[in-house]
Amino acid sequence: MFHGSYHPEDITLLLEPVPVSKASGTAAGKVTAEYIADTAYEDLFLDAVRDNAPRLARDVAQLALHLHRTQAGDITLVTLIRAGTPTGVLLQKALRQLGHRSTHYSISAVRDRGIDPMALDYILDRHNADSVVFVDGWTGKGFIAQELAESLAVYNASRGTAVQPSLAVLADLAGVAGIAASGDDYLIPFSMMLAPVCGMIGGSFLNTDTAGFDQCLYFDAGVNRDLSQWFVDYVHRQVCAALQAQTSLEWNDARRTEMRAVSDRFVEQCIERFRLPGGRNAVKPGICEANRALLTRNVPMAFLVRNPVEDARDLRNLCRLAGEKRVPVVHWAEMPYRAGVVLNPAASTVF
Fold first, then answer.
1. Residue 67 is part of which domain span?
2. Same domain flag for 18 and 164
3. In a domain, 248, yes or no
4. Taking CA 177 as the corner, what is the angle to CA 214 and CA 134, rounded to the nearest 5 degrees?
């Protein structure tokens, strides 16, 4: 089985890896699209880990404690690559720390198809459907949660199963997760990096050659310095301390409804203000979504910031990425999030 650069007991990646050293065709094109961090950018990431690891550790501990208290039997963590992958590794380690038996798989979720049905077949051949907990890093405007629900509806209808689409995340800005540590827009450090903090795997894509799992790039050739295990170990030490506090989640229907209203209002404001031809899909709310957009998108965009002075330290890498890509920065003091990105804005709306 494939584990990327993680320890095998922490994760099984239900993906067919395509080594970068052997990539060709579609996969080779994805290699050039992967942002390769230099030493200066890596230093910004390391600073962000030191600054934000205590908050991240607390949130991981809260999720792990909630699952430990509410799931009587074994837990099957099913994370969505790539943002869900480090989250799941940390949760898996925390659950073991609590003495709870769990297994962690990370699977592909492709736009307009949703989760990989063959990967879910593999999981349900080995685990009970009611043990499955889907995990991602955060929500932006709720697109992934919607895709998960829609693809599971199709899957359940075709298989006669009843897998629940509830999603567990660290930060639920969209108010769509089943459980979340909070709805706060904070810098989750692994949003700043791609393969080097996600087990050296690239984004997934459909497998058109065989009837196997979806494929992903595997950076086997030293293109990046791997920080995946260092990151997990660094944060996990603080998770262990946070578990001792035994704090409970404060997520509830009222908070979820509030966050959903804030998210929907912000998305509509962006569509109107920046005249976005892509509608909702063109809005990337929150500091983590801004990171992913600036790291992976190569289309015209605008980088939105609420308080460039107060949030300067957490925005340093984003400002650098925006400068490299010549993305205009828009100061929007009234926005509900610390940062965001809009794709393909009308040129006259960003100055």
1. 8-243
2. yes
3. no
4. 35
